[in-house]
Design brief:
Blueprint lengths: L2 H13 L1 E2 L2 E2 L18 H29 L10 H31 L1 H15 L7 H12 L2 E7 L15 H4 L7 E5 L9 E11 L4 E8 L2 E9 L5 E8 L2 H45 L1
Antiparallel strand pairs: 1-2, 3-8, 4-5, 4-8, 5-6, 6-7
Helix pairs in contact: 2-3, 2-7, 3-4, 3-7, 4-5
Length: 289
């Protein structure tokens, strides 16, 4: 998208209404100004590094679970080496459950996409909030999750309810992830552009375009449902983001919590190695005797 198109879309975005509601000016995506919404380079880098380490920790956890599952444990063994292996195995199982809970707590506390995803599901389950519109509902979820929204894509430069060719490309669709705020064009008459606002939860079948989303509408507290984003194209994508004033604290605290998880994983990898060693000793003892 060139600069003229970006400017044009921003102007359109400033003037649209969702379900005949004026969008609050303070919440409208706007061009980034120096020192306004752009985080300091070192903080942005720290946030990226934290998320990278978090993802690596998740991969390590899954790898360790698989490795543990592949270990054959004989609970009826009577020799000391095998009995020690069983004890260690049980200890690792318990510890991996603790690490799983630590990762979940980290996601809820620091990852904006996960915070929005979990909040949307929670709001749907509780069923207490009665929105004025679908837009009102997603705004409520983002506010409750404590995150802001960064504009990734918008194309509302069409008249009527049918977006036609004005929608996200396949490459742009690949950038959608859990927690994103999206509009899809279902040609409803409540919105002048025929769009419905939802929180994206995940792909059911990316190739076929089916996705799971959460949304609410007038006097409806929210529901989790399926939608085909090929038949109902996406015209807007907003990414959840940590508010600027909280980014430094989040970067520092997430680094500490992530390091704790990494430390725990390091310890468990050593114990898993001990289990294998004890089993090998048991085999050797049985051969000797």
């Amino acid at each position: 998208m060139n600069r003229l198109e970006i400017v044009k879309n921003i102007k359109i975005w400033y003037n649209i209404k969702m379900n005949n509601e004026n969008i609050p000016i303070k919440d409208i995506p706007k061009p980034k100004e120096k020192g306004d919404t752009i985080p300091k380079p070192d903080i942005a880098l720290a946030l990226q590094e934290n998320e990278k380490k978090y993802n690596e920790a998740r991969v390590r956890l899954e790898h360790m679970r698989k490795k543990l599952k592949d270990i054959h444990i004989d609970n009826n063994a009577t020799d000391e080496c095998s009995k020690k292996a069983v004890t260690l195995y049980e200890q690792v199982q318990c510890k991996l459950e603790e690490i799983t809970k630590m990762l979940l707590a980290l996601e809820k506390a620091y990852l904006p996409g996960k915070k929005v995803e979990l909040t949307a599901i929670e709001v749907c389950k509780k069923g207490k909030y009665k929105p004025a519109s679908c837009w009102d509902w997603v705004q409520y979820v983002y506010h409750k999750a404590g995150v802001k929204r960064n504009l990734l894509y918008v194309d509302l430069g069409y008249a009527g309810l049918d977006c036609g060719k004005h929608h996200a490309s396949p490459a742009m669709m690949d950038q959608i992830s859990a927690g994103d705020l999206i509009f899809y064009n279902n040609k409803n008459t409540a919105d002048e552009h025929g769009n419905h606002s939802v929180i994206f939860l995940g792909w059911i079948d990316r190739e076929k375009g089916t996705a799971q989303v959460a949304s609410g509408f007038y006097d409806n507290p929210g529901r989790i449902h399926e939608v085909n984003l090929i038949k109902k194209p996406v015209t807007f994508i907003g990414k959840p983001a940590i508010p600027l004033k909280k980014q430094e604290a989040v970067a520092q605290n997430m680094a500490i919590d992530t390091q704790k998880i990494v430390h725990e994983l390091n310890g468990m990898e050593e114990v898993v190695s001990q289990i294998v060693d004890q089993q090998q000793l048991a085999v050797l003892e049985s051969k000797i005797t």
